[in-house]
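User: quick one, sequence for these tokens?
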């Protein structure tokens, strides 16, 4: 190409592909990420609603089997029945996930009558189902620790 030669403008097809394809890729990526959060939000929201309603057995059933083997239902129930963080909790909004050794950690906010509070849930996959291993609210563990003696 000589210094004086004009550049050929991009074809209309390429411009259309870029104009339509770019946003579609972005939307697809956004939907994919939100769907990844949706499963964790559903599990976490169900857990906090069950605890708020006093359905401790149902909430306990969402915990991982090693957790349930280490923390008896009665201890779980006694601890959560006195935990004010869960009173009136309605949902969890997840805004970040990350992998850790053998599981997934999520961060977000738990919606409650007194306002939203920061929450982290830790999950592990058991078969084809995600189960909870720990819940941290306001920087402190909100469920009894298996490491603590009863």
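Assistant:
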């Amino acid at each position: 190409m000589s210094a004086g030669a004009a550049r050929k403008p991009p074809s209309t097809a390429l411009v259309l592909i870029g104009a339509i394809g770019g946003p579609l890729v972005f939307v697809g990526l956004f939907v994919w990420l939100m769907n990844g959060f949706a499963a964790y939000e559903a599990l976490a929201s169900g857990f906090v609603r069950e605890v708020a309603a006093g359905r401790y057995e149902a909430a306990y059933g969402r915990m991982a089997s090693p957790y349930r083997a280490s923390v008896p239902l009665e201890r779980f129930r006694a601890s959560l029945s006195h935990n004010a963080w869960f009173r009136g909790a309605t949902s969890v909004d997840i805004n970040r996930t990350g992998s850790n050794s053998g599981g997934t950690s999520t961060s977000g906010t738990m919606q409650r009558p007194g306002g939203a509070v920061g929450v982290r849930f830790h999950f592990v996959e058991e078969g084809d189902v995600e189960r909870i291993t720990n819940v941290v609210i306001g920087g402190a563990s909100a469920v009894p620790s298996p490491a603590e003696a009863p």
